[in-house]
Amino acid sequence: MDMKKLILLTAILAVLTSCGSGDRGQLVGVKGKKWHPEKPFGMELVPGGAFIMGKADDDLAGVHDAPAKTVTVRSYYMDATEITNSEYKQFVNWVRDSTIRTRMAILADEVGLTQADAGTIGDFAFVDADPADMSVYEKYMYDNYSGLGPTGYEGRKLNKDIDIEFDTAGYIDEYYAEVMDTMYLPIEESYNGQRTWDVKKFKFQYTYMDIEKAAKMSNKGKKRSDFLITEAVEIYPDTTAWIRDFAYSYNEPMHNDYFWHAAYDDYPVVGVTWKQANAFCEWRTLYHNAYRKSTKKHNVAKYRLPSEAEWEYAARGGLQAATFPWGGPYTKNDRGCFMANFKPLRGDYAADQALYTVEAKSYEANDYNLYNMAGNVSEWVHASYDPSSYEFVSSINPSVNDINNNRKVVRGGSWKDVAYYLQVSSRDYEYADSARSYIGFRTVQDYLGTDITLNGLN
Fold first, then answer.
1. Tens of pLDDT along 220-272?
2. What is d(CA 185, CA 201) in angstroms, rounded to the nearest whole number?
3. What is the pLDDT of residues 111-154, one digit of tens each?
4. Domain coordinates of the chain in residue numbers?
5. 0.70 cut: is pTM over it?
6. 85-111 and 174-183 helices cross at what angle (nearest 10)?
7. Of 3.40.50.720, 3.40.50.970, 1.20.1510.10, 3.90.1580.10, which CATH number belongs to 71-86+202-458?
8. In whole angstroms, what is the distance from residue 412 CA to residue 428 CA?
9. Residue 395 needs a FRET pair 20 to 30 A away by CA distance; which of 80, 110, 126, 354 works?
10. Nearest CA-CA partner of 166 in 180, 182, 186, 185
């Protein structure tokens, strides 16, 4: 083909492409799905801005781990309350049910039963057990990727249209009974006529990328898979924390009932480790985006633990140099009532009208409409504890989380702490794999779109 014919063909293709696009040959950009910021249920918008992080007054405890530093954070949503027992149970039940459905489907596959075998464990068989009902994409994925994981069942689709029967009188066949039996502790370990779940059987597995490490090693010939980390986390709270945390103390009622009884549904969940709190965030993102996908909407930003700066900024509620979320420097209001749930007097846990925790929506909210940012339960944040971190951390969206440092920051003080730990600038830590009867958490989600700042609202 000579040069004239090549130029003519290129010109014709350009005309054809331009005519059919509707953009009249102009640069209009690629239009995706419309995005409408939507405040997640139970969350409040915290408008971004600058604030003085750290101790505004003298550090009376002499810790010297929070020198005053001006920093700026972006806008985000934050849970109005600590995550409650009821909310955490939704996560636990989802993992429990998914685990049981997976065990049912695997056994159905092993014994050769499908959904065509109604009234048997075949009701729970993998949806893709019958290739005739697959879409083109599902069949492609099944042919090319099925069986590549460690169990050989990764990626198989579960049947969630049939309810799980927990009443032994309703078990549909012996295979069903066999699976359910393996989910409980052995009969010889039960007492009072009750069998309890073997909580070690229920794990939430997820994969994430170590972005910071990937960014540092981007030019060193590493593959994406080199930075992927898979976690499998047991999800049930450790209720023995109520006994373990207080030697020579009678707290068995809290061990027996606090997470399990409906009377405590609206109280903050405790006994969860930092790793469990992160697993909850991953599940909440997965759960929300699964619904968004079914309605053909954009994915939302991931739920996560707040950074230390985000937590302190939210706790201050827009008040600069405040000692407590309500301003301060006192823990009582003008009527002589305590403003939070903590230990106000030596040995007297009940002076504030609460012996242990209180309902998550108790006392007065701060100016961002956030409850119990001081007291009730301390809260995990996405930060590793380093007493000198304020000296080297960035001044924009500061965050320090060393994957090799298992000392994770907790903020806000709890029902068993003195007033010092309730101060918005006070820092404390616990180990990532530790579960305590006085540590819970709340989550945040990045605000996407045109940024809203505190300065812009004034």
1. 778 888 888 899 999 999 999 999 999 999 999 999 999 999 999 999 999 99
2. 10
3. 999 888 999 999 999 987 666 667 787 777 777 777 667 777 87
4. 71-86+202-458
5. yes
6. 140
7. 3.90.1580.10
8. 9
9. 80
10. 180
